[in-house]
Structures are given as C-alpha cells and as structure tokens.
Amino acid sequence: MNSIGLYIRAYPRSDGRVRLRFEPRVRPEGWPSSKPLYLEGEDGIDLDNLTPAQEAELQRQAKNHYVDFNAFKAQAGSVAEPTEPVTDLWDEIIAVRRDSEKWRRLAERTQESYAHAHRQLVRVCRRLDLSLERTTESQFERALRGAFNSEWTRKTIYSELRVLVDHAMVESKRPDHLLFRPMVRPPDVSLQLWELSDVHSLVRSALYCNEVGLARLILFQWELGQRLTSARNMRYGHQYRDGMLVHRCRKTNREVRIPILNPTSRTLLDRDYRHGDYMFVRRQDGEPFTERNLSRAFATLRDRTPGYEESGLTIRTLRHTCILQLARGGCSVPEIASVTGHALSWVYETLSSYLGRDSYLAFMAMSKRERMRLDGIEGEMVLQPERRVFFGPVDPATKPLTPKEVLLYGG
C-alpha cells in the first residue's frame, strides 16, 4: 500500500471494506506488531471510493506512524530508515507517462481524469499484488472486473493501463512476450456509406448555400478518407501542396505525398488557394470547423437537400467509404492503408464488414463470368492439394509426345 505509506497492509472485511494497519516487517523490541489507521473514527475503509481529502488523512496517519517508528528505532539503538518513501515501478512509469508530449497536449480536465484513473489502478494492483513487470493482460482484466462495477470506469482505467504497459516496454521494464493484444474495434455495419451520386448532390447543395468549405471537405474526404480531426485543421501550403496531401511519417520520418487525380476535386480544392490559409472554413466567420459545428453544419445541409431529409449519411462515414471505393478499384489492403492512414488490421475489418456483399463487386464478378462464356473458353480445371491450375483449351490426345517434342514444347 505504497499509495498510503510504507508498511501499510490492507485486510479485507466481509462487507467489501478493508482494515489498514501499519506493520513493519522488522520491529525493535517494544514496538507493537500492528497499529490501525482510522477514517472518521471507523476501522473499515472503502478504498475504491476515497476522496482526495480522505486519502490525504490516511497518508498523514501513515506518515506519523512511520516517523514514530524511526524515532523508536533510534532510541533503541537501531539505524533509522530513510524518511523518503521508496517508489516502485508503477510510480516510475506513471511519471514517464506524465512527462510525455502526448500527456502535455491533453486538456487539464482530461489530465485530472487520467490521474484519477492512475490512482484507482495502482490501488487495486497493489492490493492484489499485481506488478507491472510480470502481470499478464488476462490477470489485469479479471482484477478490473472484480474491482469496478462501472463499465465506463473499467474502460477508462484499462485504456490508461495499456498506455502504461507500452511505456514500460519502451523503458525495457516489461518483457516483450507480455505485450497486450492490439485493440481493433469492428466497424459499425449499420452505418450508411456514400455513393458518388450522394457526393455530387450534397456538394452541389453546399455550393448553392455558399458553404464552400464544407463542399471542399466532402470532396477531400471522398478522395482521401483522412482522420476528420486532422483534416479539419489542414492548411494550404502545409498539409496540401500542388494537388497533393503531404505529411511526414512518424515511424520512418519520410515525407509521404498522396495526389488527388480527379480534375473536378482539384478545381474546387485549388480555387481559393492561398499559402497558410485553412482549407475548410465556415461561411459565418472564416474559421476552421470544430467537431460540434461541423456536425451541425452537415446536418443542416443534409436536411436542406431534397431526397436526403431522412438519410443516415454522416460526414465521418466518408472515411469508411473511401476504403470501400479503393477496394472496388482493385487496391490491396497495404495500398488502402497508405492512403487513409488506417492500420492494416482496421482496413481488413472494415472490408470484412462492408465488402462481403457488395453490388458493384457482384456485378463485376458476373460480368467476367459472362465474358468467359461469350468468348467460348473451354478447358479443364485440375484440382491439386494446394492449388488450382486452369490449363485452358485441351486438345484430345492422339499419341504420346516424343522426347524431342517434350524438349521443344516444354512437356
């Protein structure tokens, strides 16, 4: 129980609360074997719902016991222990997390929420003796399910646990074979995806309403399917230059350029090109869209467009649609990921959800089949254990080939 103080042990009670005791491992003669910590005069403490004030009170009592213990040891002729508390790996990795650049970019309220999650996680893990360097993912999951009834609380704590595990592995404090499984959330198959006719109708409607920034964003997402959070704040001359999306890959540190080849999209995107300006701005104030006013602006546009009043289209599903359109064009999973920036596993999950029963692909498959029939292709399909080989037209054999003919025709 280092979060409370040194030499603090917790003894569970039948009602879910715990009794906290100050119990040094090695005691000088005359020092009691156990000293209790009380909270508001009660010996039972609910550690999972401690307020900051209550936690501070317990820490104060633990510190007083520790100081008294050192003073008693000094009088007894023993060497006093250092008064600074000893930190373990949890404290070290949490400090690394809070010193990272990603943590500093978080809002203050988000930092407070994650810091509270850290305290709850460490409290449970220390009580159950779960160390960061050797506990498996399944053991952490069982501990969190048993400690917290709220699904939202478990989700928040588990999210931060994954981050701490990643930091521990980067710092070589946790072995590689204890890597957590990658999180791949299956796409929502109930989402309505876009077609080219939808893009044409809504872009024309946006231009008619003088929402040029929104029209540009729809076309940009239809072509490249980028993260909407990143796309909203893109600037001319920075992320978009010469008809290409330009960004630097963090892992390889190489500049990646993705061209937009459609002339109609290029014309609208380049029409008001000025270096440094935001690409997608609101009509009212010329500022880039926020998440909230973008959703509101698109909902208004959709309701004003005839035939789309009851449509379930959203602007965020353009990214899913881009994956599907690239796959329809014959792109491989790595090629799709290089454009949209998704992980390969996410592209695969998206295609598994949306591409299994696709009208366009079904039409192309039947067209190829019918073309084969019209061309009069006949042959034999030879089935082998590991592959299928189509040999094409087969002439009826008349006589065996001679060895010379075998060499000439390759068998």
Question: Can you offer a commentary on this structure?
Answer:
The protein is mostly helical. It is 47% helix and 8% strand. The strands form 3 sheets. It has a 3-stranded antiparallel β-sheet, with helices on one face.
Stretches with pLDDT under 50, minimum 5 residues: 78-87, 379-398
Secondary-structure element series: EEEHHHHHHHHHEEEHHHHHHEEH
Largest sheet: 3 strands, antiparallel
Give me the side-by-side strand order of the main sheet: 1-2-3
Share in helix:
40-55%
Kindly report the average pLDDT value: 81
Describe the structure in brief.
With about 400 residues, the chain is mainly alpha-helical. Helix content is about 45%, strand content about 10%. The chain is built from 16 helices and eight strands.
